[in-house]
Automatic annotation (TrEMBL):
<feature type="transmembrane region" description="Helical">
    <location>
        <begin position="303"/>
        <end position="325"/>
    </location>
</feature>
<feature type="transmembrane region" description="Helical">
    <location>
        <begin position="366"/>
        <end position="385"/>
    </location>
</feature>
<dbReference type="InterPro" id="IPR020846">
    <property type="entry name" value="MFS_dom"/>
</dbReference>
<comment type="similarity">
    <text>Belongs to the major facilitator superfamily.</text>
</comment>
<feature type="transmembrane region" description="Helical">
    <location>
        <begin position="47"/>
        <end position="68"/>
    </location>
</feature>
<protein>
    <submittedName>
        <fullName>MFS transporter</fullName>
    </submittedName>
</protein>
<dbReference type="InterPro" id="IPR036259">
    <property type="entry name" value="MFS_trans_sf"/>
</dbReference>
<feature type="transmembrane region" description="Helical">
    <location>
        <begin position="249"/>
        <end position="271"/>
    </location>
</feature>
<feature type="transmembrane region" description="Helical">
    <location>
        <begin position="337"/>
        <end position="360"/>
    </location>
</feature>
<feature type="domain" description="Major facilitator superfamily (MFS) profile">
    <location>
        <begin position="6"/>
        <end position="386"/>
    </location>
</feature>
<feature type="transmembrane region" description="Helical">
    <location>
        <begin position="162"/>
        <end position="184"/>
    </location>
</feature>
<feature type="transmembrane region" description="Helical">
    <location>
        <begin position="213"/>
        <end position="237"/>
    </location>
</feature>
<keyword id="KW-0472">Membrane</keyword>
<feature type="transmembrane region" description="Helical">
    <location>
        <begin position="99"/>
        <end position="123"/>
    </location>
</feature>
<keyword id="KW-0813">Transport</keyword>
<feature type="transmembrane region" description="Helical">
    <location>
        <begin position="135"/>
        <end position="156"/>
    </location>
</feature>
<dbReference type="GO" id="GO:0005886">
    <property type="term" value="C:plasma membrane"/>
</dbReference>
């Protein structure tokens, strides 16, 4: 129940889980030029330090959701966080590039044990009336972790080295994992399923994919990060060119808008509990469209304002959609959460990469058109859910 000591402990523990997972995941993004210089590799090769991690994470998420049904939520999340943090320290000590890549790929596999299981834990343990707020705090932790992993690493690298920065973050996230374990209460409503039965899991996943409401939410989960990652990927290219000519440090400061994402995700969860999920999800998608439109302006202030609105819209939408999945999933919440996050990471990977073709052939207007169309598609999916009504579960509860 919201306001109780248990609720506060769960919220803080899941905030730490979100922070650790996403800071470990994205910490190498600002270090890619350092990797290229240190190991004598091309920029494209250096990007493998991030793409391998996210790729293996997407594969691991589905399996983690299934295994957590047998292994339990709390222990699996802690083991994933602690092991990944230790691997990050190992990556800092890697004597060559290929060992670093192996460490980063293994991090992705291990981190898959956190996002889907965290969503399932919250859906099982938090009163449905207060689930949106709790999910929003978890998403706020992911936003803070993403910001710390991108912006903070640049500062640490200047003070020490890229190895020192990676090692320090690994140690910090190991401490966050221990704090998570100490804070998070044991599951009260989780019912373990003995053994691993592939047929059972496949039937549950297939059932979720046949659920009209969940399928639309999975599609919206594909769309939200597709827009966000694509805009952030190619905004840097645009701002590094004339007439802006921003340097890499100035461009990296754009990630400070994640702070607004933290506030938005937490606030959106609470507002969804009060006013309903559909209106808040529609607001998030509308903010995304408005933000994309502002980035078409030539003034740097207009572009930054657009990126800010995109960030608020993304974190609002993701907070609401991820909480809604748990509400509609019934008893197999871990399976539903894993499918949502599978779509989520596939969207960021596939559309984030495809956006490069739009940038190369049509410049920023083409990128804006792609992302704007995705947001409109999301609004159409949400409208179809509202028309479907009761078969999708509570629309406002």
């Amino acid at each position: 129940m919201r306001g109780t000591a248990a609720y506060r402990r769960i919220s803080l523990a899941l905030f730490l889980a979100g922070f650790a997972t996403f800071s470990l995941l994205y910490c190498v993004q600002p270090l890619l030029p350092e990797f290229a210089r240190a190991f004598g590799i091309s920029p494209a090769e250096s990007a493998l330090a991030l793409s391998l991690t996210t790729g293996f994470l997407a594969l691991a998420i589905v399996a983690a959701g299934a295994f957590s049904q047998a292994l339990g939520r709390r222990g699996l999340m802690f083991g994933s966080m602690a092991s990944a943090a230790i691997l990050n320290i190992g990556a800092a000590l890697s004597p060559d590039w290929h060992i670093l890549l192996v460490a980063r790929a293994c991090e992705g596999l291990l981190l898959g044990g956190v996002p889907a299981v965290a969503m399932a834990y919250l859906a099982e343990e938090i009163d449905p009336r207060h689930l949106g707020k709790a999910m929003g705090l978890y998403v706020a932790g992911t936003a803070f972790g993403g910001m710390a992993g991108r912006v903070g690493m640049g500062v640490l690298t200047e003070l020490t080295s890229w190895r020192g920065a990676l090692g320090a973050l690994g140690a910090l996230d190991l401490a966050a994992g221990i704090g998570f374990l100490l804070l998070l209460p044991r599951s009260r409503n989780f019912v373990p399923v003995a053994g691993f039965q592939p047929g059972t899991h496949l039937r549950i996943w297939a059932g979720h994919l046949r659920h009209p409401g969940l399928l639309r939410l999975f599609a919206i989960g594909f769309i939200l990060p597709s827009m966000f990652v694509t805009l952030f990927n190619y905004a840097g290219f645009r701002l590094s060119e004339a007439p802006y000519d921003l340097n890499q440090t100035q461009i990296s400061l754009i990630f400070l808008v994640y702070g607004f994402g933290m506030v938005a995700s937490s606030a959106a969860g609470g507002l969804a509990d009060r006013f309903g999920r559909a209106p808040l999800l529609a607001l998030g998608l509308a903010l995304l469209i408005a933000g994309v439109a502002l980035t078409l302006l030539q003034a740097l202030s207009g572009i930054i304002a657009g990126i800010l609105l995109v960030t608020i819209g993304f974190f609002t939408g993701h907070s609401v959609a991820s909480g809604w999945v748990g509400r509609l999933a019934g008893s197999a919440k871990g399976h539903a959460a894993s499918l949502y996050l599978l779509f989520y990471y596939l969207g960021s990977s596939l559309i984030g990469s495809a956006g490069g073709w739009f940038w190369a052939h049509g410049g920023w207007p083409s990128v804006a058109a792609l992302t704007g169309l995705l947001a409109l598609t999301g609004l159409g999916l949400l409208a179809s859910m509202r028309r479907a009504g009761p078969m999708n579960g509570p629309m406002n509860g």
